[in-house]
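HUMAN: Ready with one sample?

ASSISTANT:
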Amino acid sequence: MSKEVNFDIREVMRLLPHRYPFLLVDRVIEHEVGVSIVGIKNVTYNEGFFVGHFPELPTMPGVLILEALAQISGILAVLKSGLRADSGLILYFAGIDNARFKRPVVPGDQLRLVSELDKQKRDLWKFRTRALVGDALACEADMMCVLKKPERGQEAA
């Protein structure tokens, strides 16, 4: 059973290593421990990518919708495993399957980011994800991520 939560941006930043301009989760609103999570991304015209994608018809790039879904999945993994952003471990993409885009995402939209843990075996995590605007499906994808320490020379400063 999902539990309503209200993790604001400060808590999101404690859970993820991402920062502006690449932090794409504004809030977490539901969480069922180890099972599922729902977050929000408010899409505003002030996003830097709208300058060039596309100036006459601002549209959020699909790869950034996938990144937002990966970030909400990362929060689900962190909450299940107990890790924090300062643990030194990173949840990297390992694969994306069945990605489908159903509607454009434009300024003024609020993306509801939904992730369900499909499987977790050691450091490999699989998620079923969806991004919705209202009740309309904008994007869905199956994602695989691996939790690991950065390679030598890739550590954060």
